[in-house]
Amino acid sequence: MKSSPEKITLIGAGLNGPLLAILLMQRGLSVEIYERRPDMRRIRMSAGRSINLALSTRGIYALQQAGLWERMRSIIIPMKGRMMHSIASELTFQPYGQNETEVINSISRAELNIALINAAEEHGATIHFNQRCTGYDLKTGSTRVRNEETGEETTLQAAVVIGCDGSASAIRGEMLKLSRFNFSQQYLDYGYKELTIPASSQGEHLLETHALHIWPRGNHMLIALPNIDGTFACILFLPFEGADSFASLTTHAQVIQFFESRFPDVVRLMPQLADNYFANPTGAMVTVKCSPWHVEGRALLLGDAVHAIVPFFGQGLNCGFEDCTCLVELLDRHGAEWAGVFAEFENERKVNTDAIADMAIENFAEMRDRVADSRFLLRKKVELALEAKYPRLFVPKYAMVTFHRIPYSVALARGTVQDRMLTELCESIYRMEDLDWSKADWLIRRDLTPLELRQ
Ligand SMILES: Cc1cc2nc3c(=O)[nH]c(=O)nc-3n(C[C@H](O)[C@H](O)[C@H](O)COP(=O)(O)OP(=O)(O)OC[C@H]3O[C@@H](n4cnc5c(N)ncnc54)[C@H](O)[C@@H]3O)c2cc1C
Asked: Which residue lies with its CA nearest to atom 19 of ligand 1?
């Protein structure tokens, strides 16, 4: 694409804003970012807001396109599978993929955000912190921002505004005024809270390092992801209301008693458990769907602003990063014909972001409940065996989403067909050795066509 003097304004310097800024500036565009929060490199993030993320193939591909992947390697920890902790403190390890290259990567949100902000500035982006977007004029394309420290209001004019301002997007809030703007938001009845397992006195991890730890307990769940400093970032998922809920755990003693009865092997590793529990906020989880994603060629929504999803497939960030690479690929193809590029972007992405939103909700039940079930574990073994034998025909849904860049909508559709097949193949067996391979061969060749695999 030819260099253009056009100025692009991005709202939000979370995870997608700075990455998109880099990709746009690599194409000769000039970018300014307005972020409502203070500069996180100077002011420590509030406790309980630094949740770790699982970075996988789609996110890594985007970081490679931006030339950032190599520098991220020093701040990630590969996780090879799920380590399930039973209530009797027994451990079961379930690999995510076929081999050690099929891993997901634990990364601290704060470290990733800082690395992206630094890189965006190195590429020449100007980032204005403490500047909250308070409005966007749908007709003139002007954006209002307010300085959060001084209260000063400014009106900005840019050729294009892109709302990367997260699940409560201010730009999307303005787009609600468009006639025939479709919008839905669906909250889970569950919330989440960040907790920590500190490092040992030698700075080492107190649980297996290269795993995502899960304590699946039916209607609640604890997970833990490793950090490079030897700590684990844990997330407790609980219903907001009812028995065993955030509402019912109101004293230090109740929290300790709850953990001792549900997660007995972890209590002794969390000396600050009750203090952390009450100090850290409880977050909500929402699925947002809307359309259109753009106002002609003047404004666009991207990332959580247009498709917030629940975190149970570990894909929100990966999906947002895929938005960024998709958008710049369209720019490379068509040039800065913004209205056409935005329309094609929405057309290409929405079917896929809707699909991952639905799969993420489905995966909640799998993580909190089914991973502890021996029938489910057998299905997972059968899936991996089928993939090993039919590598381009049968690829487990988890792998299609996590280790490949197969469109999410294809992963959803093929996943449904494969689920039916697995039910048929597994319903009357209890061991891998009893799998009916000739039936599997027949079903696979009948129902699946070869996949184009992109990593
Ligand atoms: C508990 C949890 C676990 C998760 N785990 C994973 C995971 O393992 N893997 C994964 O891929 N994804 C995960 N996600 C999802 C991931 O965090 C999001 O998809 C990702 O942060 C979205 O990036 P974003 O840039 O679109 O939005 P955000 O990261 O929310 O950034 C938005 C930015 O915009 C700023 N902003 C907001 N409003 C305004 C305004 N009016 N004016 C100016 N600035 C504004 C905000 O301050 C923020 O900096 C998880 C999410 C949660 C809640």
From this structure: 316
The atom number, within ligand 1, closest to the CA of 16 reads 25
CATH 3.50.50.60 domain range(s) in the chain: 7-75+109-184+285-363
Domain with CATH 3.30.9.30 in the chain: 188-283
pLDDT in tens, 265-301: 999 999 999 999 999 999 999 999 999 999 999 999 9
Cis peptide, bond prior to residue 292, ω within 30 of zero: yes
Q: Backbone phi, then psi, for 327, in 5-degree steps?
A: -60, -45
**257: CA distance to ligand 1 center in Å?**
33
CATH of segment(s) 7-75+109-184+285-363? 3.50.50.60
Ligand 1, from 317, 327, 356, 401: best to mutate by most atoms within 8 Å of Cβ?
Answer: 317
Q: Which pLDDT tens digit goes with each residue over 95-141?
A: 999 888 999 999 999 999 999 999 999 999 999 999 999 999 999 99
Instruction: Return d(Cα 35, Cα 299) in angstroms, integer.
Output: 17
In angstroms, what is the span from residue 15 Cα to ligand 1's centroid? 6
Tell me if 430 sits within 8 A of 452, measured CB to CB: no
Residue 310 dihedral angles phi and psi, to the nearest 5°:
-75, 155
Q: Which residues of the chain have pLDDT under 50?
A: 1-4
* pTM over cut 0.85: yes
Distance 22 CA to ligand 1 centre (A): 18
Q: How far is the CA of 20 from the centre of ligand 1 (A)?
A: 14
Structurally, what CATH architecture does the domain formed by 188-283 represent?
A: 2-Layer Sandwich (3.30)
